[in-house]
């Protein structure tokens, strides 16, 4: 039997985790021959609820679920972990922007960044899902000075798959026909879903759809999808977010297929003029666990302006939490 792999999920009693944990336990991240240990972190008042989730996990008798560790102590939760899903954070309610969460959530990521730095496996892959995800990832990176910044990434995968799905619906093609959409920038309503490099069955996506649809429908639909889900459900996306988290981490593990990329929030290396260090969603390829920002894509004036707006917003967010960096 393989040695179990240690995975931590924070916010384990929350809505996203209620989907995520069961899929991890079923082997969807590392495959059907890889046992795992689930280390579940919650705040003390949520431990009762978490006990119920653990009962359900046990009731499934998952063959791959070697052990479950439940704790409200980050030092226990992050001990030796190879994969960290940072989900635990307040979600927004109707009428809020994700950046409205910054004040409430930022401190969580400073504290957890420090503990990850001390006790996690030095090769840990950390995915920040809790909002505002890009700036929370920046905070975690800055509080984990001994780990390379590329151990951390923030989730743009849900936006990425939202974009694929909208384009596939419009073109009446299966989602598998779509490749190389890009989400640039912040996981906020200013994010830029870019179709200039996307393909539908090897045809240029923008040659198949009307320009007005791209500008007036596609872009805002993807940008405001989270808001619309909250309006409809009364709470933010959960199952789709859990799916995106697994897809994101799987891509880090298994890499991107040749000629394709995904969108991820990563610390900028200055590519496309984005200030170094800012956690910005780029098109990235992954080979042997290494994340590379796709280079050399041509950006027209429209796209450059969208990138600039995202940079400004992320710089403002960084300014608001500069005491935590
Ligand atoms: P939720 O309120 O249902 O669950 C969050 C859980 O985190 C709660 O159980 C809470 O007790 C716990 N928590 C709070 N502080 C914690 C801490 N310091 N340590 C450990 N756990 C802590 O929320 P949810 O619907 O699961 O969403 C979680 C986060 O994910 C929110 O910030 C939401 O906005 C975000 N989100 C991001 C994306 C994305 O695409 N990046 C998508 C959906 C949701
Ligand atoms: C989403 O995109 O669905 C999440 O970030 C939740 C939200 O606040 O919109």
TrEMBL record:
* Keywords on record: NAD, Oxidoreductase, Tricarboxylic acid cycle
**Species in which this protein is naturally found:** Methylomonas paludis
Report the residue ranges that make up the Lactate/malate dehydrogenase C-terminal domain in this protein: 158-322
Extract one GO BP annotation from the record: malate metabolic process
The protein's Enzyme Commission number: 1.1.1.37
Q: What is the enzyme's main class? A: oxidoreductase
Entries under SUPFAM superfamilies matching the protein: LDH C-terminal domain-like, NAD(P)-binding Rossmann-fold domains
Which residues are involved in binding NAD(+)?
Answer: 11-17, 105, 112, 129-131
Residue ranges of domain Lactate/malate dehydrogenase N-terminal in the record? 6-150
A single GO molecular function term of this UniProt record: L-malate dehydrogenase (NAD+) activity
Which residues constitute the catalytic centre? 187 (proton acceptor)
UniProt keyword RNA-binding, yes or no: no
Taxonomic lineage: Bacteria, Pseudomonadati, Pseudomonadota, Gammaproteobacteria, Methylococcales
> Which purpose does this protein serve, as stated in its record?
Catalyzes the reversible oxidation of malate to oxaloacetate.
> By its UniProt entry, which HAMAP family does this protein fall under?
Malate_dehydrog_2
The protein, known as: Malate dehydrogenase
Keyword Oxidoreductase recorded: yes
Tell me what reaction this enzyme catalyses.
Answer: (S)-malate + NAD(+) = oxaloacetate + NADH + H(+)
Superkingdom in the source lineage: Bacteria
């Amino acid at each position: 039997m393989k040695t179990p792999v240690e995975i931590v999920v924070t916010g384990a009693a929350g809505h996203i985790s209620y989907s995520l944990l069961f899929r991890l336990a079923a082997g969807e991240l590392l495959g059907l021959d890889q046992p795992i240990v689930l280390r579940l972190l919650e705040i003390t008042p949520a431990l009762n609820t978490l006990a119920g989730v653990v009962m359900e996990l046990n009731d499934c008798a998952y063959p791959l679920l070697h052990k479950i560790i439940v704790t409200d102590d980050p030092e226990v939760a992050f001990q030796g972990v190879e994969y960290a899903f940072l989900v635990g954070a307040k979600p927004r309610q109707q009428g809020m922007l994700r950046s409205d969460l910054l004040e409430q959530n930022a401190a969580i990521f400073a504290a957890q960044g420090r503990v990850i730095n001390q006790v996690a496996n030095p090769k840990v892959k950390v995915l920040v899902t809790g909002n505002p995800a890009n700036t929370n990832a920046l905070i975690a990176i800055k509080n984990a000075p001994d780990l390379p910044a590329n151990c951390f990434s923030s989730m743009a995968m849900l936006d990425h798959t939202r974009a694929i799905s909208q384009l596939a619906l419009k073109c009446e093609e299966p989602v598998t026909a779509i490749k190389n959409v890009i989400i640039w920038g912040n996981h906020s309503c200013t994010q830029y879903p870019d179709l200039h490099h996307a393909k539908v069955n090897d045809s240029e996506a923008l040659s198949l759809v009307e320009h007005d649809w791209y500008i007036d429908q596609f872009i805002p639909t993807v940008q405001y999808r989270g808001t619309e889900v909250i309006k409809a459900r009364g709470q933010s996306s959960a199952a789709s977010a859990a799916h995106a988290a697994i897809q994101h981490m799987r891509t880090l593990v298994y890499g991107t297929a040749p000629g394709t990329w995904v969108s991820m929030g990563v610390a900028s290396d200055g590519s496309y003029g984005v200030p170094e260090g800012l956690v910005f969603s780029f098109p990235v390829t992954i080979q042997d666990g290494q994340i590379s920002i796709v280079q050399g894509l041509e950006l027209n004036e429209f796209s450059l302006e969208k990138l600039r707006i995202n940079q400004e917003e992320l710089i403002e967010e960084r300014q608001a939490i500069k005491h935590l960096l």
